[in-house]
Hints:
Elements: H1 2-17, H2 23-33, E1 40-43, E2 46-49, H3 56-61, H4 69-73, H5 76-98, H6 105-114, H7 118-121, H8 126-135, H9 138-142, E3 162-163, E4 178-179, H10 184-199
Antiparallel strand pairs: 1-2, 3-4
Helix pairs in contact: 1-10, 2-8, 5-6, 6-8
Amino acid sequence: MQFVVLATLAVTLAKSISAGITDACISCLAKVELGNPNACNEDQGSPSCGVYQIKLPYWQDCYEPGNSLEECAFNEQCAKDCVRDYTSRYAHLCKEQLDKDRLSCEDYGRMHNGGGPSGCRGTWTLHYVDLMRNKCTPDELRSLDEPDPLASSSESRSFPPTENTSTRSHTTETTSTTLTPSRAPAASVRRLVQMLHRHQ
């Protein structure tokens, strides 16, 4: 009974802090990437895996869900959670750089493709926006991020600085800027839920 109560609380907490990129936008990214859901392919000297073409540094920046990059990238829910946690981690920096209160799906696409927040403003990700406009529906492209209940909280920026070294499949640059993640709790709660399920 105790595990059930804790699991319910953890799920509720996860939902309350997992605002950010919408499901519609994640579907758009899948259409653009066109990755094999059960395979990796060599891309710029390193593997890009699954539907969203996730690379190792990207998986590390989404808090390493699953037991490995491949295990997560080949699992539909884990891969979606990775994209969600990665983009949530750096969303506040993109908002600052673009001077926006809310990010569009195109902003998230550039972040996903371009190596974190540097991709939001980098010219090398503009071609990705063209791909999104060609392959995604108007409703997917119109989707704005969901309101972030942690955005105005000082606690949302209290995590230790993290080195972002993500290199995406279409980028020509690697970012190595010291960044402060804002959304670590979402991934932590997901891990807590997984542990509780294993002990039931």
